[in-house]
Amino acid sequence: MNTELTKIGQKIHDVRKALKTSAIALAEASQISRITLHRIEKGEPSVAISSYATVLQALGLSLGIQDATH
Prior knowledge:
Structural class: mainly alpha
Low-confidence stretches: none
Number of helices: 4
Shape: globular
Distance between the termini: 28 Å
Strand content: under 5%
Number of strands: 0
Order of helices and strands: HHHH
Oligomer: single chain
Mean pLDDT: 91
Largest sheet: none
């Protein structure tokens, strides 16, 4: 499995738990299904990256992509 997606999924899970937000509430806020959120939290690569981005945005997070040349 993709380790970067696994790390992102774990971060999403950890932040959701820290905020005491249910999976259902975050899924609804992200306009995705609870099952898709579960797959994101597991870091599954078959989920569209836009779904990852939507969940991150709902949590107030970002991918934090940096230019590799710097």
